[in-house]
Design goal:
heterodimer, A: 481 residues, 2 domains, six-stranded mixed barrel, 51% helix, B: 262 residues, four-stranded antiparallel β-sheet, 10 strands, globular, disordered C terminus
Amino acid sequence: MKADDLVDLAARNLRESMLRSSLTTLGIGVGVASLVAMLSLGIGLQQLADRRLARSGLFDTIVVTSRRSLRGFGRADNRNGAPPAESRPLDEKARAEMARLPNVLEAVPDLHFIGEVRYEGKPHLAMVAGLPLSARDKDAFDNMQGRFFSSDAADEAILQIQFADELLGIHQKLGESSSKLSGQTQALIGKELTLRYAERVPSPAAPESKPVPAEEGGGTGDRSGALKDAPQPPVMAAFSVVPRERKLHIVAVTDQDPEGMRGASGARVFIPLQMVEKLHVMLPSGLRGSEPDFANVPAYLSLSVRVNSADRVESVQDAIRKMGFSTFSILDATRGLQRFFAVLDLFLGIFGSLALAVAALGIVNTLVMAILERRREIGIMKAIGASDGDVKKLFLAEAAVMGLVGGMLGVALGWAMGRLINAGANVYLHRQNLPSEELWAVPWWLVAGAIGFAIVISMISGLYPAARAARLDPVQALRYE
Amino acid sequence: MTEKSRRAGTIRTEAVCRHYQMGDAVIRAVDGISLEVGAGEFVALLGSSGSGKSSLLNLIAGLDRPTSGAVIVNGDNLAEMSSEELSRYRRHSVGIVFQAFNLVGAMTLLENVELPMRFAETERGQRLALAREALQRVGLGGRLMHRPGQLSGGEQQRAALARALANRPSLLLADEPTGNLDSHTGNEILDLLHECNERLGMTLLLVTHERALAERYAERLVFLADGKVVGEQANVPAFQRVAAGGSGKGTAGPQTQEGERR
C-alpha cells in the first residue's frame, strides 16, 4: 500500500473512534508538553547562565601575574620555570607582546589604588580602579545611569551606587536590601570630584636620602633578595612619593555591586584605564617591594588578557606561560558548569519523559483495544488482499499520526506552560527588585525533536499491537460474529 | 468454450487436507479432497454445515493453508507460497463474496470498493472511476456515499460483489452468498454472479447448502460430507433447460453421475 493511502486510512480509522483517539492523543500531548517544558527550562537556564557568564568576562579572561610576584597564582609553574627572581617583569613590553598573541582581544593591566575623593569639600576614601573602554559591554554597566567614558584618558569617573549614596549623605536603612538608582543619584552626574592620590616620581638620585614626604627603595630590595636568595639587581630603583590632585567629572552611576566585579577589587570609583597609567600612582606593591623596578620601568601587578572565545583560552594560556608568566583562568570552572547543565537537562528530560512513558502505555492500550474491536475489519482487509505488512503498517501509521498530532499539541501546550512559568518567575523577580529574565527557551531543534520523539515513541508503542494485528488469522477473524 | 481453457482461473486440489487440533481431538475439516475446476467453469460445492465446504473454499481463497496436499490455482501451488505471495494472490487473482457481506462498516460503499485497489496500489483517480463504475454495474450507482448499515442485505451483497470484482480477478469464490437474504434477493445476487461467469469468463466456485439454487445456475455440482467429496454431477442449469438445447454451455447430459463414495 502506498504511504499516502496508509496515512489516509490511518487518519480515517482514528476519526472513527474519535473520543478514544483524541484522549490518547491528548495523553501524548501532555507527555510531550511536560518534556518540552522541562527541557526548555533547562535550556533557558543554561542560556541565561552562559549569557551572564560570557558578559561577566569570567570565561574569556586570563589573569597574568609575574612569577616574581608573591601573589602569583600558579605555584606549579613556579616550580618548573625559571626561579622567580630571574623571570621577566610584567611590564609594558610584556603587555604589548601578549596583546599581539593570536586570538587575544586585549591585554589590560589591573590597576587600582586607594584614593581620597573630595566631593563638596568632604573627604571620602575609596578604592579607585581603571577601566578599559572595552568594559562598556560588560553586564556590570547594564543598568547604568549616565554614559560611559568619552575616551580612554578623559577626566571622568563612574561611581558605584553605594559610594554615590555616601557622597550624597544617604544612609542605608537596616533591612533594606540594596541602594536604588534614583533622581538623587541622577543629580550627581555632571558634578565635579577631586581625586587625591600619591604619585610615584622616579628620582635619579642615590637612594640614601630623600627630602620629599615619603621614601622607599633599598630596604625592600634587600628583603626580596634575602627571601628568594636571588642576585641583587645592579641598580636599585629610587623614587619619591608626591601627593597630587585631579579634578574629575562624574559621568555615570552604576548599581553594580562592587563585589560582583572581578579585577576591580571592590572598587567604588572607576576612571579610564589610560588615565590611571598616566597618574603613576604609588601602588601598595611598590611599597612591599615584591615588584622592584628596573630602570624605573613600571611593572604591573597583574594583567587581564581577554581572549576572543572561551575555547581558545587554553592555547593562549599556554603561550603566555611560555613567555614566563603565571596565568590563571577559571576554564575548569566552566567545564564543571557545563557538566552541571548537562546533568540538569538529563534529569529534567527524564522527569519530562515519565509523562510520555505513561502516554506510550496509553497508545499500546488504545491500539490493542482497536485490534479487538476491528478484528473483523482486519480479517476483511486480509481477505481482499492486504498483506501482513500492510496491516502492520496501517497500525503503525495510526500510532504515528497520534504521535504527530500529540507532539504538535504537546509543543504548543509546553510552550504555553513555559511562558506561564516564565511570567510567574518574572513576577517574583520583580518583587525582589531584580530585572526580569528570560528563563525559557524553546529552540527550533527542541520543537522538531519533541515532535519527532513523540512519533518515534508512539510507533515503538505501536509495534506490539501492529505485530499482533498482522498475525491475525483471517479465517478466525471472519468467523467471529 | 475456448476461453475456458486458459490457465488463468484453473483450480486443482491434490489430496488436500486441513486438520484442526481441538484439545486432544483432531478435526478433519478437509480430508483429502482432489478436485479439478477448469477455467471459466461454474461449480457448486454442496453439503450440510460442517461438511468442510467453507474450509475448502478458504484453502482455495488462500485465506488458510492446507495441513497437507496441494492447492494449485493458475498453475501455482498455494501451499508453497509465502504469506506475502499469498496476499498478492488474494489481491489480484481471487474475489470473495461472503455470507455476512463483510463490508467495512465505517466506510462508504465507494471506499469499500476502492479498498482492494488501494492494496493493489492503483492510481487514486483511476481507482475512483473504477469503483464508481463497478457499483453502477451492480445497480448501486446512486448510493456511492452510503454506509453499509444504511442499505438492505441485497444491496450490501451487491456492493460486496462489486468489491470482489475490483481488481479483476480470474477466480470468483462465493461462500453462501444468499444465506442472509430472502430467496428473491438471493436469486438477484446469483444472477449477477452468473453474469460474471458468463460475460467475464471468470471461474466461479459457489458454496451453498441449497441444492435447488445450485441446480439452477451451476454447470457442475460437487457434494461434500465430513471433509470428503461424496459425489459429483454435471448439471445443465435450469434456465438453459428452458431454452431447450440452445447455445447453452452445459454439454454434459443431465443426471450424469460421476460421484465416488469412499
